Amino acid sequence: MEKINAVINWSPVENLLLKHYTVGKSVEGTSAYPPLLLLKCLMLQQWFHIESDPELETQINDRISFKNFLGLSFDQPSPDHSTFSRFRSRLSKKAMAKINSEVLLQFTSKGLTINEGIAINARLVQSASHSLSKERLCKKKRLNAKRPKAMSLRTASRLNSPAIGNRTGQLKMMSLISV
Q: Under a CB-based contact definition with an 8 Å cutoff, are residues 178 and 96 in contact?
């Protein structure tokens, strides 16, 4: 994500954004989050398939790489999940399309594409099962080694798809932000 920050010229993106997002320009009240920061948050949500705004907030607070991409220091908290929702609702689909186009044009002009990833949240859960003794574990391994291995459909499809691409093996141009 450091490379994305280095490759993208954020000034034209921010200028486009400020034309369509007028919130937070008043000198009264508390200072608002910069619209570019909120846009980058939504980009992370799309790129890493983060399904909800509360989960996006959690992921930003948990990942140093996300904080660096957003320009937040480690001790600065993520914007609240409701801030993402309000930001998204205040931008029209037309504005989002223009902003997406600007970022994608910059990527394309530099010969780059965006690949999707998945943000994974791991949790420790206490198991109700009992651990196997070493002897029972070895016996179970021997039995499993004798059984023929079945190939799952997912494994079979991976073998038939090219190495580069998405789950279906197709290269795809994606939108930076869902609208």
A: no
